[in-house]
Automatic annotation (TrEMBL):
Domain of life: Bacteria
Catalysed reaction, written as an equation: beta-D-glucose 1-phosphate = beta-D-glucose 6-phosphate
Enzyme Commission identifier(s): 5.4.2.6
Record: residues binding substrate: 10-12, 26, 45-50, 53, 77, 115-119, 146
Sorted UniProt keywords: Carbohydrate metabolism, Isomerase, Magnesium, Metal-binding, Phosphoprotein
Cofactor binding mode and count: Binds 2 magnesium ions per subunit.
UniProt enzyme class: isomerase
Organism of derivation: Anaerobacillus arseniciselenatis
Protein name in UniProt: Beta-phosphoglucomutase
Transmembrane region(s): none
Cofactor entry: Mg(2+)
Family that this chain belongs to: Belongs to the HAD-like hydrolase superfamily. CbbY/CbbZ/Gph/YieH family.
Gene Ontology terms for molecular function: beta-phosphoglucomutase activity; magnesium ion binding
Amino acid sequence: MLPVKACIFDLDGVIVDTAKYHYLAWRRLANELGFDFSEEDNERLKGVSRMDSLNILLEIGGVQLDEARKEELAKKKNEWYVELIAHMDDKEILAGTTQFLTELQKVGVKIALGSASKNAKTILKRIGLMEMFDVIIDGTDISKAKPDPEVFLLGAEALKVEPSACVVFEDAVSGVEAALSAGMRVVGVGSKETLYKANDVVSSLAEMTLDRLEK
Ligand code: G6P
Ligand code: MG
């Protein structure tokens, strides 16, 4: 394994807890369609693209719709989500994030974002972390959702770093799988039981150090 030259971060669930806003917007949509949507159901949507999330939601509600109507509903959900994230600020950056990014910068490890979200740049701007990233790959750049490795491979390519010198930080099972298929090492952010495929697991970036990264 090469020494670490780059770190690629997922956004939702690693840098900020936007799952709660996605949940509120999806639940509002479910309620409008006449069914309930629990927080447990919401776990299934982590790391999943907007359209795939809608399909899971409709399956839970036992609702079948044509593509045009689905597009309309995905748009509606996103409008509610955008309203919710418009109020975000730097207080929502998860513990340890700014400190770890600063340490990486100091030692010259490159930093990229690898997110499925089309709202990633809006969120980074709101929380004031945009400038910390050398490269941003988001939902507007990719054609294949995680667990496909595309998002992370594009990140490594843009940074001009070989995949085996990259470490990915991910909270979703599909994201851990994507990183492994990209030939990268991966640190799971969350629970060991869920993210057991990852090379290492931390409960938040507050547990990360440069030493731990090299191991
Ligand atoms: C991330 C989140 C998912 C979300 C996806 C697309 O992967 O974990 O919950 O559905 O991004 O986000 P978007 O903001 O484009 O709807
Ligand atoms: Mg995530």
